[in-house]
Specification:
76% helix, mainly alpha, 13 helices
Length: 247
Amino acid sequence: MRNFFTLYKRELSSLYYTPTGYIVMCVFLAVLGWVFWILVGILNLPQNVKLNEDVFSIMFGGTFFYWIILAGVTSALTMRLFAEERRSGTIELLSTAPVTDMQIVLSKYFSALTFLLLMWVPTIIYVMILGRFATVDYGVVFSGYVGTIFLCAMLTSLGLLMSSFTKSQFVSFVISFVLILMLFSLNFMQNIVSPFWRELYQYVSILEQFQDFPRGVIASRSVVYFLSLTILMLFCTVKSVESHKWR
């Protein structure tokens, strides 16, 4: 465990010591703040006063911006984790150190996930601000954050896996970003496939599995879905790292 925490602190500090981390954080908070301001303004229009809509039920997954910003942020945070190590040659030094491949993968994974989740902490201010002037459904807020944690965990594991395949940060970013958008788009393909494939697409669709969280429901099926994909991709990342030793 000592080796894991040493690697974890090294990876996490590297995210705070590079401009990329701060740029990603500023863009992330700027976009979410803008979306929050827009939603509050729209729902407060006279013609929308009677709408039974909650700002946070829309903010968590109810807009295109939520999905596109998560796709971009997770791809940007994970693109360098293995790609930069392979490009600079430090991955060979790391692989000969007294640490296991599992510890290397998990330290990089949890450092990126920690950084990503910490970026969400300032958004609690939005809840506090709205709570002073309007009624807030805290059940929706809580489940929305829980769903976001599971979603971020899965997307981070996907980005880490893609980073382990290439030496180029740019290639890693593009592949991760495109794959995440493809996973999001599975929900829209249900209408153009046969009934059998429609059920399969419905189950593997991130949008379909996430939709209960903004409603205030934490469904066990969705939790199992996100955890299963996260563990699967972390396992594949470990095997990818191991395979480089034999090349």
